[in-house]
TrEMBL record:
Pfam families: MPAB_Lcp_cat
InterPro entries: Lcp-like, MPAB/Lcp_cat_dom
The protein's name: DUF2236 domain-containing protein
All residue ranges annotated as the ER-bound oxygenase mpaB/mpaB'/Rubber oxygenase catalytic domain in the record: 215-375
Record organism: Rugamonas brunnea
């Protein structure tokens, strides 16, 4: 960590992406005649679907039907943003990719029960998520859009190979963030952050011609810049980055599966490279777990000082838990997502997310006994088999259910592109065996997940 958290970090966003969107949209008509802007956003979204492989980015050109001004802005943005930073280390990135593959289904469990919940803790950030289409009512969309970035980044060669898609997908997300900021503020965030700018962007009624969509909702929402800073600002972006790196590694430690320090450094480094492509300033990143912990805690403390009303965090947390509960077969197991999230995120975050409600004594006892027994068995078995881990088995079984039913199901909102679906399907189908587990443990996992009956789909489904 090379900087301190200050008020200025909430008033800084992403000049490259913000200026790109400002070039594309131009000024908004305060009286509601903004048909050209809505059409421009639709055009941009259409062009984003072409950004699939890293190797196609250097020579990418917009489609012939795209207006020249929009085409030029997108092409300039791609050329300016596609390169990895000079400090990127390919060996560390390759190691992080290997770790992600080795942890496989466990990675999905920690995404649902650690990274995403912690992402909702910051009030301002939760407020943006709430404004972006009432996401507590569309949790599937949030989960799948996160996976659409996570998998391309962490699959082999995602950031470094021409055939990978991590850079392309991250640049999409970066431009989407800029669009969200521009819609909420109705202009370039750099203008809204100036001292002479109005302190608040007032809410607007839905006007004729304004789309009844996420974009229209964001435009009408309103925002208090003086109180809440810019939406999706540097501090919030850096905090979100830590939920996918530091929080993930912290969760492994809490499960008794902590990695060696050099592996933790490689994982943090890889996500810092992603952060660079995402437009996050280097000074807002952490290189070690100690730095990450200090930065993460300071960001949470800073965020909690400024409440965002109405507080949407409990609704977001409840929606995420309910989405997971639906996929668990037995009633006694349905509270386990809440209990595991409490364990991984701690009491303060659980309180923020409203996850402190009553859970049946039987479920709590079963969870506590399971966690204690697993730790005891792991500690004993590792005296004879150093790589043995019942924790891995349990979290892999849970992660398999969530991966199949929430990420790979093409009947849910936000259909993953066929190219990405094929890549993810090929990767996850290779997760049917835990290379660090004995043969009998893999056989037990196959039986518990019912893989012979529920193959992970790839490609277009009928």
């Amino acid at each position: 960590m090379r900087d301190t958290i200050t008020r200025s970090s909430t008033l800084r966003a992403d000049p490259l992406a913000d200026d790109t969107i400002a070039r594309i949209l131009g000024p908004w008509d305060k009286h509601g005649d903004n048909a050209a802007q809505w059409q421009a956003i639709a055009t941009v979204n259409d062009q984003l679907t072409q950004w699939q492989a890293n190797g196609a980015l250097p020579g990418w050109r917009a489609s012939e039907h795209v207006p020249p001004a929009i085409a030029a802005a997108l092409e300039d943005y791609i050329q300016a943003g596609l390169r990895l930073p000079d400090w990127a280390e390919p060996a560390k990135i390759a190691r992080a990719e290997a770790l992600f593959m080795d942890m496989s289904m466990l990675s999905c469990t920690l995404l649902f029960c650690a990274s995403l919940p912690e992402c909702y803790v910051i009030p301002d950030l939760a407020g943006v998520l709430h404004a972006a289409g009432q996401l507590e009512q569309h949790t599937d969309y949030r989960i799948r859009s996160t996976a659409a970035m996570l998998f391309p980044v962490m699959m082999h060669g995602g950031l470094t190979d021409a055939s990978g898609g991590g850079v392309a997908q991250t640049l999409k997300v970066r431009l989407i963030h800029a669009t969200i900021r521009h819609l909420i503020l109705r202009g370039n965030p750099s203008d809204a952050a100036r001292p002479e700018a109005p302190a608040q962007v007032p809410p607007l009624p839905m006007l004729a011609g304004q789309p009844r969509s996420m974009q229209g909702t964001l435009y009408a929402h309103g925002w208090n810049v003086e109180r809440d800073g810019l939406p999706c600002n540097q501090e919030e972006l850096a905090y979100t980055l830590l939920t996918f790196s530091y929080v993930f590694l912290r969760a492994l430690r809490k499960l008794g599966l902590g990695l060696p320090a050099e592996d933790e450094h490689a994982y943090l480094h890889t996500w810092n490279v992603v952060g660079h492509v995402l437009g996050i300033e280097r000074t807002m990143m952490a290189d070690t777990m100690e730095q990450a912990e200090a930065l993460f805690n300071r960001m949470q403390a800073s965020g909690r000082v400024h409440p965002f009303l109405p507080d949407s965090r409990p609704a977001l947390g409840a929606a995420l838990m309910q989405t997971m509960e639906k996929e668990l077969p037995l009633r006694i197991l349905k509270p386990f997502p809440v209990l595991l999230t409490r364990h991984l995120c701690g009491p303060a975050a659980s309180q923020d997310l409203g996850l402190t409600g009553r859970v049946s004594l039987l479920s709590r006892a079963l969870f506590a006994i399971s966690m204690g027994t697993i730790r005891l068995i792991d500690a004993t078995a590792r005296l004879f088999w150093p790589q043995f881990s019942l924790s891995r088995l349990v979290t892999r079984v849970v992660g398999y259910q969530f991966t199949v039913k929430l990420l790979m199901d093409q009947t849910r909102p936000l259909k993953l592109p066929d190219a990405l679906l094929n890549q993810v399907g090929a990767v996850t189908s290779g997760w049917d065996q835990d290379r660090q587990a004995p043969r009998w443990v893999n056989a037990l996992e196959t039986r518990l997940t019912g893989r012979r009956k529920h193959l992970i789909p790839t490609g277009p489904q009928p």
